[in-house]
Structures are given as structure tokens and as C-alpha cells.
Amino acid sequence: QVQLVESGGGLVQPGGSLRLSCAVSGRIFSINAMGWYRQAPGKERELVARATGDGSTNYADSVKGRFTISRDNAKNTAFLQMNTLKPEDTAVYYCKAEAQPSRWERIGDYWGQGTQVTISS
């Protein structure tokens, strides 16, 4: 089974930075894309950033210019560099892999357990 583990969350003051990591393990045939999502209290889960295998990226308007998604394909790891953090960025951040476990299975979505990011003075 494909497994994702996020790390790097914590408490940061407004204007600060955090770097989230997402390590993918288990039986993996290929990873088509990696993405970061977040869910704030009382709100729906939303896409923050996504990176495809060909290098394309996209970001939510609210984080453009502040967040950067990257991938280390050799280590099956994704990162989210978050700068100039705002209180509105407070949420649980989830990593998602669009992965194919084997050549016999179709590509599916696999989620991490989430990591809390809190921006407060």
C-alpha cells in the first residue's frame, strides 16, 4: 500500500516561514503528481499547490508568490516552502500523491495524515 507521511508543521508567527515535507513509501510503480491541500476550521479542504511529473505547477491564488512546491523524485518526496505566513494560512495541511502502485492497478489518490500549521503571534 502507498503510504504518505507529512512533517514540518508547527506554530509560527505572522511573516515567518515553514517547510513541509511529504515522504511517499510502499509499493510504488509511478507517481503522476504530488499536491498539498489544507483544511481550516469550518471550511472545505482546498488545493494549495500541485506539481506534475513534467514539472508543471499550480497554486491557489491566496498563496501565489508566497508558497513553492517542489519534488525530489529520487526520494519520492515533496516539499512545500511557505513564506510570509499569515494567520489565514492556519490549517491542517495534507499531502496527496496521484500514484500507480503497480502496472496492474490504475492511478489513484493517496493521502497523508495531515500536519497542523498554526500562524499566531
Report the span from N to C terminus: 40 Å
- The helix/strand order is EEEEEEEEEEE
Strand content: over 45%
Oligomer category: single chain
Number of helices: 0
By secondary-structure content and strand pairing, the structural class works out as mainly beta
Brief digest:
This protein is mainly β and about 120 residues long. It contains no helices and eleven strands.
Question: What's the structural blueprint in terms of helices and strands?
Answer:
Blueprint lengths: L2 E5 L2 E3 L5 E8 L4 E10 L6 E7 L4 E3 L7 E6 L4 E6 L8 E10 L7 E4 L3 E5 L2
Parallel strand pairs: 2-11
Antiparallel strand pairs: 1-3, 3-8, 4-5, 4-9, 5-6, 7-8, 9-10, 9-11
3D structure, described in words:
With 121 residues, the chain is mostly beta strands. Helix content is 0%, strand content 55%. The chain is built from no helices and eleven strands. It has strands spanning 3-7, 10-12, 18-25, 30-39, 46-52, 57-59, 67-72, 77-82, 91-100, 108-111, 115-119. The strands form two sheets. Strands 2, 4, 5, 6, 9, 10 and 11 form a seven-stranded mixed sheet that branches. A four-stranded antiparallel sheet has the order 1-3-8-7, with no helix packed on it. The termini are far apart. The model has no long low-confidence stretch (mean pLDDT 95).
Which properties best describe this structure?
four-stranded antiparallel beta sheet, 0% helix, 121 residues, seven-stranded mixed beta sheet
